[in-house]
Amino acid sequence: MTADIRNWVHIGTLEDIPREGARCVKNGDMTIAVFRTAKDDVFALEDKCPHKNGPLSQGIVHDGCVTCPLHNWVISLETGAAQGADEGRTAAFPVRLEDGRILIDLSYSHEAV
Amino acid sequence: MTKQKLVIVGNGMAPGRMLENLFEKDRDAYEVTIFNAEPRVNYNRLMLSPVLSGEKTYEDIITHGDDWYADHGVTLHKGARISGIDRQAKTVTSETGITASYDKLVIATGSSPFIIPLPGKDLDGVLTYRDLDDVEKMLGAAKRAGRAVVIGGGLLGLEAAAGLKMQGMDVTVLHLMPTLMERQLDPAAGFLLEAEFKSRGIDVRTKANSHEILGDDAGRVRGIRLDDGTEIAASIIVMAVGIRPSADLARAVGLEVNRGVLVGDDMRTSDPDIFSLGECVEHRGMCYGLVAPLYEMAGVIADNLLGGSSEYTGSVTATKLKVTGVDLYSAGDFSEGDDREEIVLRDASAGVYKRIVLKDNKIVGAVLYGETSDGPWFFDLLKKGTDVSDMRETLIFGQAYQGGAPLDPTAAVAALPDDAEICGCNGVCKGKIVATIKEKGLTSLDGVRAHTKASNSCGTCMGLVEQLMQVTLGDAYNPAAVTPMCGCTHLGHDDVRRLIKSKELKSIPAVMQELEWTTSGGCAKCRPALNYYLVSDWPDEYADDYQSRFINERVHANIQKDGTYSVVPRMWGGMTSSKELRAIADVVDKFNIPAVKCTGGQRIDMLGIRKEDLPAVWADLGKAGFVSGQAYAKGLRTVKTCVGTDWCRFGTQDSTGLGIKLEKFMWGSWTPAKLKMAVSGCPRNCAEATCKDIGIICVDSGYEIHFAGAAGLDIKGTEVLGMVKTEDEAIEHVAALAQMYREQGHYLERIYKWAKRIGLDEIRRQIMDDEAMRKAYFDRFVFSQKFAQVDPWSERVSGKDKHEFKPMAVLTKEAAE
């Protein structure tokens, strides 16, 4: 076992998010984009593209990535890292699915390195 | 040495296998007593589907008959449900009053079908699909014919549906999710499965939510009603939506139970003398409903009963659908992920789809459809964690094809039937082209054009004709390279558009399967393009996929750099009124809209609106009569006009009136790229019609129609299409031109680029000279508009896509810390 203390917060259910879509969760000043893939996997990223802060929640979700609606950067849903030739990383938060309930841990993220 | 006493509660497949393992190791260690609630010996539950379909009988599927129990000295109490366990005295008691004492107890109570709590669930004729009693009830119903409705498009539901169909019933499958067996299959394979079931005459309805089961006065099922109001008459309803572990007995006697009976890696429950296995247990958070994990658990318990220390560490599972004639295999985990790679093989002619998911050069998941003989090989590589880097290139072709040839890019064309239309302009089919190539010994594209007229007009089918030549002539012909639509396919836009029509593909998964996409779900480039092509080609049948649309078209406003939106209401022909302007002013004040601007297309743009406010903004605008200006659409944007004969001393025609008529006729239509129009009342051209996608210049003698102008990235004056005499003719020609562009344009290709590709003369010939063709284009445009002219703003004010406009959750400080 690791010594990490996890702080899971229930934010809604799988059915709240359309397949290949996203919804937002507001946490104070920060907005978190919660994505659901075609295979019903769920990922959470800060709703900010590393390029020009575009709202990733508004992008097209495909093959484990989201394409930012502002300038078409492609961001990995799992790690938050920009794909291809672009460089940058958005904070990604751990997500757990329990019987269709979505829990995220905002105390912990793979921050920009 | 006195034997220890082993009592088993339940007589399913798991304890059967456990006893076999136990007796193999030590025939004499235990005196065994089994209590079974079912009045039968042990049979192979996996084979219920062949019994239902009539391919096997009950006797064929018995695994342990009465003789086996007698031979092994096992006491079997049939029809004896256990009602209590005394853990202090170590005894069990059945409802039939039999008490037995134990040294070790095994709980194997299995699972029970999940019953959806619908009104009418208790009616006579509502069945589940779990044991032989259920099968017998279904067979009884099948004798009376009629329709069976199966709720659940998973493994069990589909097997039940196929069996009932083979027994002569009409069958409808209702499935809540968009694709069948979504837990085991990705959407592409789910689509193939759905097509196969439909071809067998089984009515499959996805996204179907059951509302109520309907009964007659005698308390028998007569049908079912769905949430959307649809009623389906049925004589039986089969619920096959899943199972839940039967853990009531364990819970009642105080064992630790979560979803199922909790066991550790040694398969012991919270009482060390009580083991549990099968579908009733929960191990490391997992409950299993497949047979392979049950067998692994059986081996572990058998060893531990004899003083061993075996551990069960969980199972990776594989699924095979047991419907004769359907080959389907799925194993492991095939979800998407950044650290994963996938290899996809599609063979449209053979109906084959294979997908392997790799992580760190190891197989973690596999889905096979149509050809599953390599399933066990892939599963074996998966379980062993074999590094497959050396055979990556040929892995997907299977074990026998190590070192096989690469994919043939012409396979999709080769698979077309002879009567598939290749050239839409001249109505030439594949059979005619292939036959002519052979008869005349043709070797060049020009030769094929001369003898068949294929690709002789607009030329969009050229790529396909070239591929046909390659298929027919082999290596003797080398077609010009086609630029693929995106990295997911080797086909160009023209090829994809022609194949969508000739193969009648009507959904994105259908296109990806039949045209052999190399990724499972497409990308942000091809999905919006395919969505447009399908909307354009099948306006009445295709269900728009919003998740494949760019955000502006999904929320009907224009996203700005800070994530806010701008909103442009429609002002027909650029005309407005004091009432409209007042309403706009009120909305600007009420929602603190920071910027208001006049656009180049004679509209008013309100910028900086928060997404959450959009529906309320639209509601207020709607009350003043405004509809969406579609300033965000790859579709008809604006028709700009001058004031024409109404006011202008030079005006020759009612340019404002014509502009309004055109806009009211054409609004809502989707086009490959944005479409901007203008009508000027005289050659002074105050509406700047000669740099628009389509423009009209009014003159004394009629209307000069222009097209293919540009005033953006490129600057280009329009070309003249031709002259017409009346307003009605002008509208007909403009709509026909727009329809031709709608049908042939590549996604995101503006009309001037399309015109350059097709040729101005060809466009003039089809629209100006060929009356029949023009009328056909016009009629298709009119038909499409029947489905396109719905105001998206009022739809959303009425509640459509509510989820788009509000956050899923707002966390308070306390919750987050």
Notable features of this structure?
heterodimer, A: about 110 residues, mainly beta, 4-stranded antiparallel β-sheet, globular, B: about 800 residues, alpha/beta, 5-stranded parallel β-sheet, 28 helices, about 20% strand, elongated
How are the SSEs placed, and which strands pair?
The complex is a heterodimer of chains A (113) and B (817).
Chain A: E1 8-13, E2 21-27, E3 30-36, E4 42-46, E5 60-62, E6 65-67, E7 74-76, E8 92-93, E9 95-98, E10 101-105
Chain B: E1 4-9, H1 13-25, E2 30-36, E3 42-43, H2 48-53, E4 62-64, H3 66-71, E5 75-78, E6 82-86, E7 91-94, E8 99-101, E9 104-107, E10 111-113, E11 126-128, H4 132-143, E12 147-151, H5 155-166, E13 170-174, H6 187-199, E14 203-205, E15 210-215, E16 221-226, E17 231-233, E18 236-239, E19 243-245, H7 248-252, E20 261-263, E21 274-276, E22 281-283, H8 291-305, E23 318-320, E24 328-332, E25 340-347, E26 352-359, E27 362-369, H9 375-384, H10 392-395, H11 411-414, E28 421-423, E29 428-429, H12 430-440, H13 445-452, H14 462-473, H15 493-502, H16 508-514, H17 526-537, H18 551-555, E30 558-559, E31 565-567, H19 578-590, E32 595-598, E33 604-609, H20 614-623, E34 636-641, H21 644-647, H22 655-666, E35 675-680, E36 694-699, E37 702-707, E38 710-711, E39 715-716, E40 719-724, H23 727-744, H24 751-758, H25 760-769, H26 771-788, H27 792-797, E41 809-811, H28 813-816
Parallel strand pairs in B: 1-2, 1-9, 2-5, 9-21, 11-18, 12-13, 12-18, 13-14, 20-22, 34-35, 35-36
Antiparallel strand pairs in B: 3-4, 6-7, 7-8, 10-19, 15-16, 16-17, 23-24, 24-27, 25-26, 26-27, 28-29, 30-31, 31-33, 32-33, 36-37, 37-40, 38-39
